[in-house]
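Submission sheet (multi-component)
Chains listed below:
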Amino acid sequence: MQTTIINIKGMTCMGCVRSIKNVLEKIPGVSGAEVSLEDAQVTIEYDAAITGIDQFKQAIEEAGFETII
Ligand code: 9UX
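Outcome: structure written.
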């Protein structure tokens, strides 16, 4: 398992937090995503043999948010 942190622009309420958590945890290979509204970031735990940062960024952007690595 590997962990990465992605900074996110545009989250304003706990609904945003929940939708980002949901899209990330649906990606095969992701075992957990903890989103912090206060810190404007998400910590993702995943299997690097299956998925990676490009897919995470794409999922977050498709959900309507900006990512900053
Ligand atoms: Mo809150 Mo976010 O009403 O996508 S859910 S602003």
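Remark: Residues 3 and 45 are 5 Å apart (CA to CA).
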